[in-house]
Amino acid sequence: MSSSDRNKTRLAPLALGLLVASSLLAGCQVRPLYGEGGADLAGIEIKPATTRVEQVVRNELIFKFGGGAGEPASPDYTLALRVQGSTGNVLAAGTDNDFTAARTTVSGTYTLTARADGKVIASGVRAATALLDLPSQNYARLRAIRDGEDRAARSLAAMIEADIAAKLSR
């Protein structure tokens, strides 16, 4: 057997493998979620908030949807949010069983509707959690809870944004 025959027999499985791989990948699509042909998030109006935590989520979504440009002048969609936060102790420490660690959970429901026909485009329920330490001073404790709520609210806004972007990009 000559060296050229051996090279041909070595290249045949490689060529067959490349052919199979390219045929499998031919059906795949890669599309940008936020770029051209992606979701038009800038046309979403968000209803006013009723609580402080809901306002944090609303502000974060306005910034994310508009890319920092603010609220849209002529929106195509309306987003209704209902957000609430709660903080609970998770770890007792010390001799007097003071709680020093806590968990803040911010949960929210959202409904995205088209302004043209009132059709519900997307809806869902999401929750985000932030862990925090609770100091013994009252003001520091309140500030720690607020900071935990803010962190969880920003995480919740990111989840809602991803859900809506995925739904609108279809």
UniProtKB/TrEMBL annotation:
Alphabetic keyword roster: Lipoprotein, Signal
A Pfam cross-reference name: LptE
Species in which this protein is naturally found: Hoeflea marina
Name listed for the protein in its UniProt record: LPS-assembly lipoprotein
Annotated Gene Ontology cellular component terms: outer membrane
Keyword Signal: yes
Gene3D superfamilies, alphabetized: Lipoprotein like domain
UniProt record, GO biological process: Gram-negative-bacterium-type cell outer membrane assembly
Keyword Transit peptide: no
Signal peptide: 1-26
InterPro entries: LPS_assembly_LptE
